[in-house]
Amino acid sequence: MLDAQHLRGFVWAFPCLSDWRCATSRVYLFACLSGRSERLIARWIQSQRQCSRLRPLDRILAVFEGKRSDRIVWQPRIDHWYDVNKKLGTLPTEYKGKELLQIYDDLRASPRTYRFFDPTIKVIQGDGVDMRVVEDETKIITTYVTPIGKLREVQTRTVHGTTTYHTEYLLKGLEDFRTLAYVLERQSFEFDKKLYDRVSKEIGDRSEPIVNLPWGSIQRLTVELMGLEKTVILLWKHPREMNELIRAIQENDSRRIKLIKRTPFKFVNFADNIDQDLISPALFEKYMLPWYRASTAELHDGGKICVSHWDGKVKALIRYARDTGLDALECVPPSPMGNITVEELYEAMRGMVLFDGIPATYFLSLVSTRELIDLTNKILSIFSPNIILGISDMLPPNGDIGKVRTVSEIVEEYVP
Asked: What is the rounded CA–CA span in Å between residue 290 and residue 287?
């Protein structure tokens, strides 16, 4: 027979069954109601109390601290899906008028928060630099006017106006290097603590505060400042000048890192968009590997956890992952979207944590729900508990939000 203490505990715990965070304890309840022992009932009550104390943030930190957690964290990046469908008026009926965080709550999922926290790091232009931004419905034009030259870039908005791509890079040729170095050397960085506190209150315990670093080292040139073709040509024709500019970029980023080291952020993401079609193994060894090692050492000294965004084909580069000093990789897409299998990725990342893992294509109509379920279970069986499950890279605008909910249900029932 249950004594009064156990009965009170049972009554206390029963309402928690509706709490998505405690779904795994249903097994205990079934056993209790099937006539199992009082000790099992007591264990079930204890698990309820433990579950009620664990927040998504606690679960995320547990992964990196080697502690046991009650559940895998599910962090699908649905930002782009939300932005486009909100703009087009095509959000599902139940989400019309809802804010992004409200949708995450309804999906019983955790947000990746750099969208909210990145603005807390302010870039301050130095003396002698006049930065001007002019934008309209189709493009954003940014110019830097200095005593030694002028730089101009144009970003064109995509068809739905929710993101941009470069149609004119800041650097047109070697003649612009000196001007960019002038701008970079004079920039400084500030942390907006009031904004951080305000955003932290808005996010609550849904997730961890995480902040992005811009593309590092040579990736800044390839992705943001020059484009791939011009970067490769100038590396061949003018290696000395290119190396001097890369040093100026790294010194600028090092000042940003020293600031972030002093902030409350626990997680720092290197938003590098690593893809072997953009950076060869030889260039990765020469530029990215020493940059990662130096930067992660600095951030680790401040107690930070370092993640990097490798969202392309990485089979030729993944062998370097454990030598970078990074604690985790984000967004690596397994085949067929990428060029590496789940098993190969796991072997190359042993000792590291994977953020995401489910290819975005699995959320399109061309892939069945059964295939999504099977792959999700496979990824969890291989990587658990060293995974923050998510979409590699993000939910497409025409993705099925119902499949996101399906993964939520899988995660609720999965025991790490």
From this structure: 6
Alpha helices in 302-353, H assignment, sequence order: 342-348
Distances (CA, A) of 188 to 148, 206, 292, 411: 19, 32, 21, 43
Rg from Cα positions in the chain: 24
Q: What is the Cα–Cα distance from 17 to 19, expressed in whole angstroms?
A: 5
179 with 143: CB under 8 angstroms? Answer: no
Cα–Cα distances (Å) from 118 to 37, 59, 210, 267, in that order, read: 52, 22, 8, 12
Contact in structure between 387 and 379 (CB atoms under 8 Å): yes
Q: Could you tell me which of 72, 3, 10, 94 has the C-alpha nearest to residue 46?
A: 10
As to burial, measured by CB atoms within 10 angstroms (0-12 exposed, 13-18 middle, 19+ buried), residue 131 is middle
Angle (nearest 5°) at CA 88 between 82 and 89: 85
DSSP H stretches of helix in 187-284: 193-203, 218-219, 228-237, 239-261, 281-283
Question: Residue 311: which region, alpha, beta or left (left: phi > 0; alpha: psi -120 to 50)?
Answer: alpha
* Cβ-based neighbour number of residue 89 at 10 Å: 7
Which pair of tokens denotes residue 387?
Answer: 């995974």
CA nearest neighbour of 223 among 268, 284, 156, 165: 165
**Cis omega (within 30 of 0) for bond into 393:** yes
Domain boundaries, the chain: 4-53, 79-120+192-413, 126-186
* Residues 144-203 pLDDT 10s: 999 999 999 999 999 999 999 999 999 999 999 999 999 999 999 999 999 999 999 999
Cβ atoms of 338 and 362 closer than 8 Å? no
Residue 248 and residue 235: Cα distance in Å, rounded?
Answer: 15
What's the pTM value of the predicted model, to 2 decimals?
0.87
pLDDT tens readout for residues 17-61: 333 334 444 444 554 555 555 555 555 445 544 444 688 889 999
Tokens 């000196």 belong to residue: 178
Question: Do residues 144 and 130 make contact, with C-beta atoms less than 8 angstroms apart?
Answer: yes
Report the C-alpha gap between 15 and 65 in whole angstroms: 31
**H or E segment at 359?**
strand 358-359
Choose among 322, 308, 389: nearest CA to 351: 322
Please determine, for residue 71, whether its predicted confidence score (pLDDT) is greater than 80. yes
- Please tell me the distance from the alpha carbon of residue 103 to that of residue 82, in angstroms, as a whole number: 9
CATH number for region 79-120+192-413: 3.20.20.210
Residues in the chain: 416
User: For the chain, what percent of residues have pLDDT higher than 90?
Assistant: 84
